[in-house]
Design brief:
about 45% strand; 2 domains; Immunoglobulin-like; mainly beta
Length: about 140
C-alpha cells in the first residue's frame, strides 16, 4: 500500500467514527480525498396564520436538528413551488411579515449557516384580500 493511501485510510477511519450523517467523501486523485458537508438539516413543519397586523402573515416552524445553524431564512413570493423573491432572516422560530398587498403568497423557511442553506420546508400559502378597503388575510 502506498504511504498516501495509508494516511488517507487512517483519516477515513477517524472521519467515519465522528462524521455526522450528512457528510460525503469525494476523491480527486489517487491517494487523496476530501470531506464535505452536503447540507444543513431542514426545519420542521411550517405553519401560517393571519397576523395581528392587518394583511400580515405569521409563520411558525420547528427548529432544525443542526445545532450549529445561525438562524432561519423566510422566503415568499406569488408563485407556488417556485421563485421566492422576498426573503428575511430571523434567529427565532417565528416570523410575521410586513403588511402584504392583495394576492396569494407562498412561503417556505430554511435553516442557514453562513452561506449554507438547508432544503426548503413545506410550502404554505395565505391570501390577502380587501374587506371594505382594508387588507386582511385568509
Amino acid at each position: 500500500m502506498r504511504r498516501g493511501t495509508a494516511v488517507g485510510l487512517g483519516l477515513l477511519a477517524i472521519f467515519w467514527l465522528a462524521a455526522p450523517a450528512r457528510a460525503a467523501w469525494t476523491s480527486s486523485a489517487a491517494g487523496s480525498a476530501s470531506a464535505r458537508a452536503t447540507t444543513i438539516l431542514p426545519t420542521g413543519t411550517l405553519t401560517a396564520t393571519c397576523g395581528v397586523v392587518s394583511a400580515s402573515v405569521k409563520l411558525d416552524w420547528a427548529a432544525t436538528s443542526s445545532p450549529w445553524a445561525d438562524g432561519y431564512e423566510v422566503a415568499w413570493g406569488t408563485s407556488p413551488g417556485g421563485s421566492y423573491p422576498t426573503t428575511a432572516t430571523t434567529p427565532s422560530l417565528t416570523y410575521t411579515t410586513p403588511a402584504l398587498g392583495i394576492g396569494t403568497y407562498y412561503f417556505v423557511v430554511r435553516a442557514y449557516k453562513g452561506s449554507w442553506r438547508s432544503a426548503n420546508s413545506n410550502e404554505v400559502s395565505k391570501s390577502v384580500i380587501s374587506v371594505l378597503g382594508i387588507g386582511t388575510c385568509s
